[in-house]
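Q: What does the assembly look like in three dimensions?
Context provided by user:
Components: two
Sequences:
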Amino acid sequence: MSGTMLNVGLDAAQLTEQRSKVLRGFARGDRAFSLTTLIACWTVVIILTGVMVALFRGALPAFQAFGWEFFISQRWSPPKEIFGGLPAIYGTLISSLIAMAIAMPIGLGIAIFLTETCPMALRKPIGIAVELLAGVPSIIYGIWGLFIFAPFLAEHVNPSLVKFFAPIPLLNALFANGSYGTNVLTASLILSIMIIPFISSVSRDVFETVPAVLKEAAYGLGCTTWEVVRKVVIPHTRVGVIGGGMLALGRALGETMAVTFVIGNAHRINPSFLDPGTTISATIANEFTEADPGLYSSTLFALGFILFVITFIVLAAARLMLMRIERRLGN
Amino acid sequence: MSATNMDMRLYASRKLRNTVMMTLCVAAAGIGLMWLALILGTLLFEGVTGVELKVFTEMTPPPGDSGGLLNAIVGSLFMTVLGTLLGTPIGILAGTYMAEYGRNSKLTMFVRFINDILLSAPSIVIGLFVYTILVAPHIEFAIPMPGKLFGGAIEIELGGHFSGLAGAVALAIIVIPVVVRTTEDMLNLVPVHLREAASALGMPRSLVIRHVAYRAARAGIITGVLLAVARISGETAPLLFTALNNQFWSLELNHPLANLPVVIFQYAMSPYEEWQRLAWVGALLITTAVLLLSIIARTLGTQRSKNG
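A: Here is the predicted structure of the complete assembly.
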């Protein structure tokens, strides 16, 4: 009798000991796991900070050598080690702006079509097709642009553009000399094809957040579809649409391969969109592996740093805008 | 009478405007689909006419010669796998913190913002970053080994030149934000009841996450990883100054590694017809892989939402 009692007592003590051991193990495992996830979280922050620091450190010699003049100088002479960043910065901005001007209406048009008038059965396949366009790697756009699109434009489109704009002052300077296939306009067109899917998929998503009641009320008053879109859907989602547009702009500014193939890589600012130009990313992609260490490669880092700062601002603004619309949705 | 007339005119003009704008929207969709058809059509035509067995059995040729893409295909696969293996755990763990431990905390908000920036940051800039940490500096060190194992020490030499490892790290940096984003979103969708039920049974937090939350969100997380793989298999810009290219067969991580995107870039820009043909074939291979991956990811994603 007493023996079993003793045994049970011993077992209970052992059990408690065992249990507390297991629990301690659990607690340790818990702490280790949560710490690992926290470290992974900070890794993301460290990577972005690292990118910024590395670019700035690489860029410092060039900034010290050229100062503010780097932003306004057009000279690009590797043998003499004189570099100006203006043509690349100008090319980056102008090609992205032209691309946005083309892609924004088309992207919005696709989104309106998909959310308002498209037959239900077609919505999904067309939506997926447009999103597949977003998944095609940029080098594919580049090779297609170089071999197919640029020659086509040079042969069939550029001459008529030049002829059409010739009598119009100012515009004839923008569309002069269409003999090159690889030029700023070609790069902008390729960029616009690349960003259309981004704009349309973000816009479609925000258009779908408009409460059906609002649209039905407008239809009930006798509005046409276009009036509903213009007066109800777009005002209601303006922030999201602009945010999506800026996200696409961020893509266009940083896009490398598609542009490098077709922009012609000339370190000059030509007034005509039909002349070759260059962008920051195209300059880096073309020249980095051949640049001497020293001022040349530091200049390329400086351009990279400027690109990063520009896209950071654009992307941050886009995210803040999209966050605002998400928060409204949450409420 | 005139009032109704004016009403009718106004009505007609509104209707006309509606028809015009809606037609333009249909045209926009038509233009979008036309680009897709044009690009994929040319790619298919140019690529398929160039495909032959040699592409998969021979190395990249010297200028003017004929050959295949074997080393580039293998190098690309190798680097993509390595990049995914490096990036995925970090991405999943960071996403886990954001959805499980620090939901709605200030750190989570901050990291989400930073992660979104990283997600759309220009990939060429990431190439420059990895160049400065893994290609430019020359690092050499030895790990002492007990006894006579490996001759007393393992000597490790890193950097100083372009390498496949640097390429894989650059790709991993692109994988991380994609995986963080989807993991966080998918874990946020897991119902709280599941976690509460597991906790009520006495499961510690880390086991609840690993055995309950991960299992419930598995399809979504895999979708995210597949999308990340699709994204990096076509990335070119970050490889230009990290892995560079290699005309020969090599699987050594500390040396330049052949890869399809850079081969396509160099061959397409070259004046040799044979190289240009191979560039088209490479482009077709990459696009097929990327589109297949995104279609698989999408079907996985929709299956999940049907069940859930």
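Follow-up: Chain A has one domain: 67-330.
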